[in-house]
């Protein structure tokens, strides 16, 4: 097993970028929106860099190996699902990505580095905006192609949450979106970016009753088959990570997306096992 360690969260879970802004305000800084403060303010950026340095240089207390030297870590992730609504042009977030990618690579030039974006296309590729789930997705400051041209980025990161992105519950349409979304990003990673692609998160929530186990399995099977077909034909390498696998004792953390081994249908578990065997063969 290998770890992809995320260095921050766009959302407030586990503190996220909002916590950095709170620390700044507590220190007396005159800050406006969370976006402007986190991605642009020099002091807030120094807080993030201090945390990054502390994590990358930390020594494992059991093995005495620094994280930056530990092969257990596959890659670093700059920030989970960054959004910068205050600058739809993408310039602010792009500058932050370039600065922080350079900073991480200066400390640890060996490990892989990815951004953590969901994969929305932005102003640099207007011809691809129609691939996004809606018009709004192209105005939140992320830009899949431009973001991944930043020096130091090694993996193209994409998420798939059609249940959350699309307003309707027509299952066939959801699966069609998944196929189009994945194939476009796989092609772009291979032909425009020249890097492996990581489907860093994908899943279906059962929380609100909009979808059930049967659709979740069809969704997962679609994602796996598209990725495996691409992988086996040698088009592009990478990985595909379902959000999220849970042991029975962790149900209190279930956000609706959890696949709980002890309580999931046998068909779901068989699907996961078959996919694992396919990767081994």
From TrEMBL:
Do the record's keywords include Hydrolase? yes
Q: Which GO terms describe its molecular function?
A: mannan endo-1,4-beta-mannosidase activity
Keywords for the protein's UniProt record, in alphabetical order: Glycosidase, Hydrolase
Could you tell me the Gene Ontology terms of the biological process aspect for this record?
Answer: polysaccharide catabolic process
Which is a Pfam family this sequence falls into?
A: GH5_mannosidase
Q: Does the keyword Hydrolase apply?
A: yes
Spell out the InterPro entries in the cross-references: GH, Glyco_hydro_5, Glyco_hydro_5_CS, MAN-like
Report the EC code(s) recorded for this entry. Answer: 3.2.1.78
According to the entry, every stretch annotated as the Glycoside hydrolase family domain falls at: 1-234
- Highest taxon in the source lineage: Eukaryota
Q: Which transformation does this protein catalyse, written as a reaction? A: Random hydrolysis of (1->4)-beta-D-mannosidic linkages in mannans, galactomannans and glucomannans
User: What's the family?
Assistant: Belongs to the glycosyl hydrolase 5 (cellulase A) family.
Protein name (record):
mannan endo-1,4-beta-mannosidase
The root-end lineage is: Eukaryota, Viridiplantae, Streptophyta, Embryophyta, Tracheophyta
């Amino acid at each position: 097993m290998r770890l992809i360690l995320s260095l921050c969260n766009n959302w407030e879970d586990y503190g996220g970028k909002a916590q950095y802004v709170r620390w700044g305000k507590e220190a007396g800084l005159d800050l406006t929106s969370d976006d402007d403060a986190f991605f642009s303010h020099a002091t807030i950026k120094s807080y993030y860099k201090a945390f990054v340095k502390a994590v990358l240089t930390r020594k494992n207390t059991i093995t005495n190996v620094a994280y930056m030297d530990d092969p257990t870590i596959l890659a670093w992730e700059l920030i989970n699902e960054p959004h910068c609504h205050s600058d739809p042009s993408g310039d602010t977030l792009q500058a932050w990505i370039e600065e922080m990618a350079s900073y991480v690579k200066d400390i640890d030039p060996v490990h892989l580095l990815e951004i953590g974006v969901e994969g929305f296309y932005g102003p640099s590729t207007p011809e691809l905006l129609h691939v996004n789930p809606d018009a709004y997705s192209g105005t939140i400051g992320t830009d899949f192609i431009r973001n991944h041209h930043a020096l130091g980025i090694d993996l193209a990161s994409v998420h798939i949450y059609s249940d959350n992105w699309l307003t309707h519950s027509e299952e066939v349409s959801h699966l069609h979106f998944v196929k189009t979304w994945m194939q476009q990003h796989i092609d772009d990673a291979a032909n425009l970016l020249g890097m492996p692609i990581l489907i860093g998160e994908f899943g279906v929530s059962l929380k609100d009753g909009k979808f059930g186990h049967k659709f979740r399995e069809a969704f997962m099977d679609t994602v796996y088959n598209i990725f495996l077909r691409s992988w086996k034909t040698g088009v592009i390498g990478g990985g595909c990570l379902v959000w999220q696998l849970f042991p029975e004792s962790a149900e209190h953390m279930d956000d609706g997306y959890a696949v709980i081994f002890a309580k999931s249908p046998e068909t779901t578990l068989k699907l996961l096992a078959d996919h694992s065997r396919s990767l081994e063969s």
